[in-house]
Design brief:
Blueprint lengths: L1 H14 L8 H17 L1 H4 L2 E5 L11 E6 L5 E5 L2 H14 L25 E4 L4 E4 L4 H4 L6 H13 L4 E3 L4 H12 L3 H7 L6 H5 L12 H20 L3 E5 L4 E2 L3 H4 L5 E3 L14 E3 L5 H17 L4 E3 L13 H16 L6 E5 L1 H5 L6 H8 L7 E5 L12 H4 L3 E5 L13 H13 L5 E6 L8 H10 L9 H13 L4 H12 L33 H13 L1 H4 L3 H31 L3 H23 L7 H10 L4 H15 L19 H23 L5 H17 L12 H18 L3
Parallel strand pairs: 1-3, 5-6, 5-15, 6-7, 7-11, 11-12, 12-13, 13-14, 14-15
Antiparallel strand pairs: 2-3, 2-4, 8-10, 9-10
């Protein structure tokens, strides 16, 4: 009976939106042809024929592509959906042409003539969905994007086979309409919304008000952007996930409805109730279905629907009661508000709540949530499955369909990190789990544009029925495609990285950079790593050795900078350890030596290196924020939003350095002054024979941190200097010290 119920639940999801009407085939094929022209140019695009044929899929809902031709003939790309055809095109470019598609820049040198496909190559995905995004990605990576950048991302999504993704822009404009209809004033609405860089947490009920309000121009631009995003996603046959009402309301609702039954939730993220402690409607309150259906009806009227909606009621917030009856009622209220508007509604739920607070979410509590929605109408994201899967301890989410997701990155941090062995084997293990209800794989990073090797592997696994058999060979080929040519030293460097930074294992693995470089300094900083630093330094040497042959590759220059940045990060930890030991031993000369190198040589060298690549510029980051504005005052406001997120993440450093980045300008004017103040304080303590006072230092350094956030200083948005020369300069100075153990 269990197997039958599981099959039925999975069946609902397999058929949900499983390829639109046949009339959509022409539209999807046209979208892929336009993608080919954008990607390769109109000339090379003429060498490809693209068609979309629903009948190509032999099983409902399982995307399929077929490749043929080439050589003297045009390359034939057929797909059961536009996404399938785009994924087939990517497969041909990758495996037959040695090309590479990436966030940091693609390598698309096509061999001539185009290689022939032996016979007909047909591939079907093993699962219904390839999901993309995290609610937080909207704020950490997408917040300042214009349509041109969104177009690039949707192309990347299609080429990587993504067919299910969040589309949450513009929802505050819809909420504004709903709140005005309910009787709230514009001033009350303005007070409720956070600033743009923090909307993700406003949407999940964690925050309100912080660094707002939203200008009216923001709503207009986001509505326009959302329409374009949805149109393009749908043109490929993707399923956009729209937001739904999760139960959180502005406090002003209690003024309009004095008898309303609400619970004031606890604080979140070290914020006080001025910015957190959201108000949650009781599920039995009659206003709950009214607000929920008002919002969804207005949303669908504006944007249309593909029948999958996201909502997170208890994200990183403990529910008011652990009683299963309450949790079931709260879940039911959200779902019933959806189906009151859309009888075909499927609820996409981030399973992070079960992983984040396991002490609260026991079997009875989890069962209450999962059992409150009909099987097949709740689609759960096992968000952190590569490290801490939830499906294994919930009997495959009690029969509800789920997507095995790789979270990988927290806060959009820079820093080489991955758990490639776990990622490689994870989806197959989930598929083979007893009575598995897995219906897809997903990539759910909080921030993107980092560690591209990890996402290339995960995207490929969405189409594989088994793991990659030889990861060492896979990363060697990855490097050759990425740089456009095979080089033995570059391949060896990547194999070393695979064995070290990309081989984290166990539940402690988290892609959150806690290096001393990007943390507020103290004497208690943890410098331990899960890998042998020697592998990083040797990979650095090997990659530099290959520079004469590969320096023309933009991707190579990016990787060389990123690996040099990582080596400097390691050196900061080592010099910090030396400075700390010198302080504890009261050796002033050694302290001044180690501290001087760290703060006055190493960090300035890192900033200079980062300034050589436009992808590592604070100026470019802030320029994106300012470009969204329609006035100078708005531009200043958006820039301050961005600076807060990168650093203090709150008025008092509430989630300090969570979203740390290593960007030119940020290193020079934020991290470096902190380190100098810290090391000077240690030296003064030793010289005067008094203990270092961390509490006083924290107060002093906060003034520096806040000054950076409030500063109007402009930073270059164009690179300067040569990455290879600067990386070599750092290498020649510090690598011999590493080898000699005399840093």
């Amino acid at each position: 009976m269990v197997a039958v119920a599981v099959a039925a639940a999975v069946g609902v999801l397999l058929l949900a939106g499983a390829g639109g009407a046949a009339g959509d085939e022409a539209r999807e094929a046209a979208a892929v042809r336009a993608l080919v022209a954008r990607l390769l140019g109109p000339g090379p695009a003429a060498d490809f024929s693209v068609s979309v044929e629903r009948a190509l899929a032999t099983k409902p809902g399982l995307d399929t592509y077929s490749l043929g031709g080439g050589g003297a003939a045009r390359v034939r790309v057929r797909g059961s959906t536009g996404v399938a055809a785009a994924a087939g095109l990517h497969r041909y470019l990758r495996d037959f042409c040695g090309c590479h598609v990436a966030w940091s820049g693609s390598q698309l040198r096509l061999p001539r003539p185009l290689p022939a496909v032996p016979g007909e190559l047909t591939e079907a995905t093993p699962n219904r969905y390839r999901y993309y995004q995290n609610v937080c990605t909207q704020s950490y990576s997408f917040v300042w994007w214009d349509w041109a950048r969104w177009e690039q991302e949707i192309d990347w999504m299609a080429l990587n086979g993504i067919n299910l993704a969040l589309a949450w822009s513009g929802q505050e404009a819809i909420w504004q309409r709903v709140y005005l209809t309910l009787g709230l004033t514009q001033a009350e609405i303005n007070e409720f919304f956070t600033g743009p860089a923090f909307l993700a947490w406003g949407r999940m009920g964690n925050l309100h008000t912080w660094d707002g309000p939203l200008p009216s121009s923001w709503h207009i631009k986001q509505l326009y952007l959302q329409h374009r995003v949805l149109d393009r996603m749908r043109s490929f046959g993707m399923t956009p996930v729209l937001p739904a009402f999760a139960g959180h309301v502005p406090e002003a609702v209690t003024r309009v409805f004095p008898q309303v039954n609400v619970t004031k939730m606890g604080s979140w993220g070290h914020f006080n109730c001025s910015y957190s402690c959201s108000f949650l409607l009781a599920p039995e309150d009659p206003i709950f279905p009214i607000i929920g259906s008002l919002f969804l009806r207005e949303l669908v009227k504006e944007f249309g629907t593909d029948h999958i909606y996201g909502a997170d009621t208890f994200n990183e917030m403990q529910p008011p009661s652990s009683e299963p009856s309450y949790l079931a009622a709260a879940t039911t209220a959200v779902y019933e508000a959806m189906i009151a508007v859309d009888t075909e509604a499927v609820w996409l739920l981030q399973g992070w709540l079960f992983q984040h607070q396991p002490q609260f979410w026991g079997p009875a509590q989890i069962q209450a949530v999962l059992g409150a929605v009909p099987r097949g109408r709740l689609l759960v994201l096992d968000l952190f499955a590569e490290s801490q899967p939830v499906y294994t301890r919930t009997a495959s989410f009690q029969g509800q369909p789920f997507i095995w997701c790789m979270l990988h990155n927290f806060g959009g941090n820079h820093g080489l990190f991955g758990a490639l062995e776990a990622v490689n084997g994870g989806p197959e293990a989930a598929r083979l789990f007893p009575n598995s209800t897995m219906v897809g794989t997903g990539m759910a990073p909080e921030g993107i544009s980092q560690n591209e090797v990890v996402y290339s592997l995960m995207a490929e696994l969405g189409w594989r029925k088994d793991p990659v058999p030889d990861l060492a060979a896979w990363v060697t080929n990855f490097a050759a495609r990425r740089y456009g040519v095979s080089h033995p030293d570059a391949g060896a460097a990547w194999r070393l990285l695979l064995q070290s930074v990309y081989n984290c294992s166990g539940e402690a693995c988290r892609g959150h950079n806690r290096s001393p470089l990007v943390r507020r300094p103290s004497l208690q900083m943890n410098t331990s790593v899960w890998y042998n630093r020697s592998s990083v330094f040797e990979a650095w040497r090997l990659l530099l050795t290959s520079a004469p042959s590969l320096a023309a590759s933009s991707a190579f220059r990016y990787d060389l900078l990123d690996l040099t940045r990582q080596a400097v990060q390691e050196l900061v930890s080592l010099y910090y350890e030396e400075a700390r030991s010198a302080y504890l031993s009261k050796e002033l000369t050694s302290l001044l030596r180690a501290g001087g190198i760290l703060a006055y040589e190493l960090l300035p060298a890192l900033d200079e290196l980062l300034a050589s690549d436009s992808r590592f510029l604070l100026g470019r980051w802030l320029e994106q924020a300012r470009a969204v504005a329609v006035s100078e005052a708005e531009a200043d406001f958006y820039e301050q939003n961005s600076r807060y997120q990168l650093t203090l993440w709150g008025p008092e450093g509430n989630i300090l350095d969570y979203a740390n980045k290593q960007l030119a300008g940020l290193v020079a004017n934020y991290y470096t002054p902190r380190w100098r103040l810290f090391l000077e304080a240690l030296a003064d303590s030793v010289a005067q024979g008094i203990p270092f006072q961390q509490h006083q230092f924290d107060k002093n350094v906060f003034q520096l941190e806040q000054a950076f956030v409030l500063s109007k200083q402009r930073y270059p948005s164009q690179p300067r200097g040569d990455t290879v020369d600067l990386a070599k300069k750092i290498f020649l100075k510090y690598y011999p010290r590493w080898v000699a153990g005399s840093w």
